[in-house]
Design a protein that fits this description.
Radius of gyration: 17 Å
Strand content: 5-15%
Shape: globular
Order of helices and strands: HEHEHEHEEHEHHEEH
Helix content: 40-55%
Number of helices: 8
Structural class: alpha/beta
Distance between the termini: 38 Å
């Protein structure tokens, strides 16, 4: 559990859980579970935030706006647990101890001597195609732009928070384009990752993904003519 892993960092890290206004029984159960854990870690886990339904990006931005004013880094991690809590703690530690205050941290699903990835063949292929399209259209060099764990420095958040428009899953793309626009370096750190049930693409997702990518690319071109 994330609270147990981050408990040694109490006072340095806080966890914000945002319900995306779904109103589903599963969401209510999640809220109840988080509230129970808050009793054990009141200084670590901030109150559950109820947001009108906007999508993944809207929930992330809603949570970031509630962060303490002295927050040095902003992060998000998918709630399905695909990235183990121990890996979240490890990357937070690396980011916090880095001497580069302008560095962005992207978790990358990759097998190494210390990380293991459980991912079916179809998802590996589609993930590779997606990464290729993202890098071609946005002019970036990111191995795994879709991995759901990223950490950004406060300065980047301050520079771009008011300009972020993607409230769905494409917030990852918009953040990547903003990182490229503002000249931040990206540290791509391999992590252990395991596929979870219910996270597959559904019919129509591929077209929505491509349209969002084109939209972010078009918007990013306009940034060159202003200071946004």
């Amino acid at each position: 559990m994330l609270g147990e892993e981050l408990d040694p960092l109490r006072g340095q890290v806080c966890i914000l859980t945002v319900d995306d206004g779904s109103g589903e029984p599963e969401s209510a159960a999640l809220v109840e579970a988080v509230e129970k854990r808050r009793r054990r870690w009141p200084q670590l886990i901030l109150p559950v935030l109820q947001a009108p339904h906007q999508g993944k990006g809207g929930a992330i931005l809603h949570g970031w706006r509630q962060a303490p004013p002295d927050t040095a880094h902003f992060a998000f991690v998918d709630a399905d647990g695909a990235v183990p809590a121990s890996e979240v703690r490890r990357l937070i530690g690396l980011a916090s101890s880095s001497d580069n205050a302008e560095e962005v941290w992207f978790a990358t699903r990759r097998n190494t001597a210390t990380t293991r990835v459980q991912r079916d063949f179809h998802r590996r292929i589609t993930g590779g195609i997606y990464a290729l399209l993202v890098n071609l259209l946005l002019g970036t060099r990111v191995r795994d732009p879709a991995c759901g764990f990223k950490i950004i420095p406060r300065s980047l958040y301050v520079n771009c928070a008011g300009h972020l428009r993607e409230f769905g899953w494409a917030l990852d793309l918009e953040l990547l384009a903003r990182i490229h626009r503002h000249g931040y370096s990206i540290r791509q750190e391999p992590v252990t990752w395991s596929e979870k049930a219910g996270s597959r693409l559904v019919p129509g997702d591929s077209w929505r993904i491509f349209r969002a990518l084109l939209r972010v690319r078009q918007e990013s071109r306009s940034w060159r003519n202003n200071t946004a």
